[in-house]
Structures are given as C-alpha cells and as structure tokens.
Design a protein that fits this description.
- This protein is α+β, with helices and mostly antiparallel strands and 182 residues long.
- 30% of the residues lie in helices and 37% in strands.
- The two termini are 15 Å apart.
- Keywords: Oxidoreductase.
Length: 182
C-alpha cells in the first residue's frame, strides 16, 4: 500500500515522465545478437495504450538482433542543447522484452496507426516493405533520472510505482528481481 508521501511523489512524477516521453521522438536501443554481442542504436517510436512500438528493418543490425534476442535496454534521453549540464541529462531507461507483432494481428494495426499518427505516411510506406518488422516493447523495470541526486526507480504494471533511489541508481540486483512480482 502506498503511503501519503509515496502517493505525492507518484502524483508529481508520473505526469512529468509522461510529458518527457511525449517530447521525445526516438529511443536509444541496447540490443544483442544471438552470440551476445551488444549493439547500440536508435529508433523512432510511438506510444499506444499498451506500450511502445517501433518499426525496424531486419537488414539493420538492431532489427536482426531483436529477432535473435528479445531482451533489450531502452533509453529516452534529453537533448544536450536542452540540458542544464551534460553530466546529468534527464533520462528514462528501462529493461524490456521485444515482442514481434504479427502483421495479421490487431496489435499490428494499432502500432502502425500510432506510428503513422506521429510520423506520417513514411510509416505506411515502410510497413509495406517485407523487411520491416513491428515490435512492441514491454518494459519491466525502469529508472527516471531528473538530475544529480534525483533518480527514481519505476516498477509495477506500466511502470507506475515510483521509488526515490537515495542510494545511487545502479538498478536492482538480478537476484532481487527473481523474487519480484511485476
């Protein structure tokens, strides 16, 4: 159960996080291939009521990586020109799994519609190409960093549970995650 203080923090931060997500057009991806080799990249994204959607070519390294390994890390990052300092840029990071969306599914139509609304007819053109795949990114745990000493862990359904990380922001040890019900 949330305490009054936790609820105030949640009520203040969640709208700020939603606005931060809406201001970003792309997200950074950390993917890995079948051999575990990492790759950093980016992709335009859109939010729908059930999560983040990206449309990527399997000819691109991150596109083939997402088909080989569904685990990834994602970051939305404040532009350097907007930041008070480059040492503490606002950012939202989360661990996620990528779900390949079947072209015949309702989710495919939903994801393409969300991307088209945000980026226009380019999405419809790309979606018609056989090498482009739609992925839904399902976040598991996250971290929102506002600046120095202002890191907040996000967990729970849709990352709506907020906790101020007063002991740094290195994330939750994997052993603890195994016991966490999300």
């Amino acid at each position: 159960m949330n305490t009054e203080k936790e609820q105030r923090l949640r009520d203040k931060l969640l709208p700020e996080i939603e606005a931060f997500k809406a201001e970003r057009s792309t997200l950074q991806l950390a993917t890995q291939d079948a051999d575990g080799l990492p790759n950093a990249s980016y992709a335009p994204f859109a939010l729908a009521d059930d999560g983040f959607y990206i449309l990527v070519s399997e000819l691109a390294r991150h596109g083939s990586n997402l088909k080989a390994s569904k685990n990834l890390s994602v970051m939305l990052l404040e532009d350097e020109a907007e930041a008070k300092t480059v040492f503490a840029r606002k950012r939202l990071t989360f661990d996620a799994t990528a779900e390949l969306v079947d072209r015949e599914s309702d989710n495919f139509s939903k994801g393409i519609a969300a991307l088209s609304a945000r980026f226009g007819e380019m999405i419809d053109n790309l979606a018609g190409l056989g090498d482009f795949n739609l992925f839904k990114l399902n976040p598991h745990q996250g971290l929102y960093v506002k600046g120095f000493g202002q890191a907040f862990s996000l967990s729970g359904v849709e990352l709506l549970d907020v906790d101020w990380k007063r002991d740094g922001h290195h994330g939750t040890p994997r052993a603890e995650l195994a016991d966490t019900v999300i």
